[in-house]
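REQUEST ID: PR-0412
SUBMITTED BY: lab tech R.K.
PRIORITY: routine
TASK: structure prediction, single protein chain
INPUT:
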Amino acid sequence: MRWIPFAILVYLALVVQTAVAPFLSLHGVQPDFVVILAVYYALVAKPPDAMLACWIIGLASDLAGLSFAGHGNVGVRALSLGLISVLIVKVRELTFRDSVWSQLVFTFATKACLSILVGLHALYVAGAALGLNEILARSFYEAVYAAVLAPYGHWMLRQLRGPLGVGPAHRWGVR
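STATUS: complete
OUTPUT:
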């Protein structure tokens, strides 16, 4: 895995997330391009690289939005994405990584878990105005939106496999 193109890609994903995602919001629900990038790396990179890449993506996402309601939240997304990537790396061998259904399911699950964890953290630390039901509903809608966009994001990232230094997924061949 090449780390300089990875760093550039994470930076571009954060720029798109902060500059373009608000214009794509539907009823206050924004797509999460950073989660799509994290799921892509969790599915195609070597296990140690995948887990480190997801942790770095989460940390960069934390640093892009430093606080809510005056309380720091650096580390919540990094820890959450790091732990979720461990689960994805353990399960990915049982699935077809290039399948659209795998991308949908993994992105949906990752975004739902991440939104719930971040929402519960906001509820605990800052006493956010949202209740548990609102956090769960918003997490579901955000996860659906991210999952719908995931195949398109994975397709674009698959076109960059060479420069990114991640090889193709393991394919079963007939000899």
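NOTES: Residues 132-158 form the longest helix (27 residues).
REVIEWED BY: pending
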